[in-house]
């Protein structure tokens, strides 16, 4: 990492290489654990695949990843079990950002380093967060819808507001619509624990009262795509793009199922959050943290920036491009590589 090199600028190349080699070998001998938020979402099953591959590629002794199933108690128990098995590093996704403190304190007490992936905790201690800018997710969805819908009601199907991801995506979309598109009427469907059942029930009720809906923004295609399309189809409102009555739909994840829906004209776009890079840099940062590296704000060597999002919480904000019918077949997207 370039951040490591900045801390030792006077060392010669040979000596630096020797130190890095020794440091890597120390990390290779340490056990690390990975928490999975859920395995019912194609996004998280893809992330699980990538995390196992990256652990092997980067020489990490990975314990069996554990699935919290959106349950804070299970997440805490999983981390405690990993620590009891000797894990010196933890990668986790704090779906209840405020409750992450219990995990972080337990890891700190055991002398283990923690990297948060996809979701940032409300406070430290955490070595770094690997995440894309979720406010920008909502803004990108807003701008696409605003460019394609002139007036009328639009709705965002929201992720759990106990998660900073749900709050950021919601705030980014809401503020952009309110500021830039006064002719759009914003509606919102809340969900608990990113529930597809909540999404379907909320959309069904909304369409009964608002049958002239013009657009939908789904905070997470992995859990909301299927129930949303099924609800629209059941109400005979799933019209392909370009046909009269088509409801503009923007999703968020970048899974293959969303790409197929774009190709079919069922949805119009999705924001591709980088499951592959979450795994790659989650493992890489954890190795470096175990070896004693501390991180600082600034540009990285992989076209992103580390920023301080809250006092003591640094975040590597990875790129998350918008995928539409124009670029959906681009092989660079991880959703086209599975």
TrEMBL record:
Matches recorded under InterPro entries: Peripla_BP_I, SBP_2_dom
Source taxon at top rank: Bacteria
Region forming the signal peptide: 1-24
Presence of keyword Signal: yes
Subcellular location: Cell envelope
Keywords assigned: Signal
GO function term, MF aspect, one: carbohydrate binding
Family the UniProt entry places it in: Belongs to the bacterial solute-binding protein 2 family.
Name assigned to this protein: Sugar ABC transporter substrate-binding protein
């Amino acid at each position: 990492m370039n951040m490591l090199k900045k801390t030792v600028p006077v060392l010669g190349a040979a000596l630096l290489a020797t130190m890095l080699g020794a440091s890597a070998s120390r990390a290779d001998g340490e056990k690390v654990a990975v928490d999975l938020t859920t395995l019912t979402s194609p996004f998280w099953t893809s992330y699980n695949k990538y995390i196992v591959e990256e652990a092997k590629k980067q020489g990490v002794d990975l314990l069996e990843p554990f699935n919290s199933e959106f349950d804070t108690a299970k997440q805490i128990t999983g981390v405690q079990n990993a620590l009891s098995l000797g894990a010196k590093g933890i990668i986790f996704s704090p779906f209840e950002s405020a409750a992450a403190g219990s995990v972080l304190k337990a890891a700190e007490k055991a002398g283990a380093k923690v990297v948060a992936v996809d979701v940032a905790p409300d406070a430290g201690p955490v070595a770094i967060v690997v995440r894309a800018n979720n406010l920008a997710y909502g803004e990108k969805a807003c701008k696409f819808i605003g460019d394609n819908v002139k007036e009328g009601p639009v709705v965002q199907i929201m992720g759990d507001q106990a998660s900073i991801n749900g709050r950021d995506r919601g705030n980014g979309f809401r503020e952009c619509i309110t500021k830039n598109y006064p002719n759009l009427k914003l509606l919102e469907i809340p969900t608990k624990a990113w529930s597809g059942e909540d999404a379907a029930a909320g959309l069904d009720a909304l369409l009964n009262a608002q049958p002239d809906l013009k657009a939908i923004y789904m905070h997470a295609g992995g859990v909301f795509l299927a129930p949303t399309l099924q609800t629209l189809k059941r109400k005979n409102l799933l019209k392909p793009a370009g046909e009269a009555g088509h409801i503009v739909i923007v999703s968020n994840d970048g899974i293959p199922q969303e790409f197929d829906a774009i190709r079919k004209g069922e949805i119009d776009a999705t924001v591709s959050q980088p499951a592959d890079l979450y795994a790659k840099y989650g493992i890489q940062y954890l190795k470096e943290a175990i070896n004693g590296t501390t991180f600082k704000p600034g540009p990285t060597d992989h076209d992103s920036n580390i920023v301080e999002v809250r006092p003591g919480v640094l975040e590597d904000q990875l790129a998350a491009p918008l995928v539409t019918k124009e670029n959906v077949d681009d092989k660079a997207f991880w959703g086209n590589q599975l």
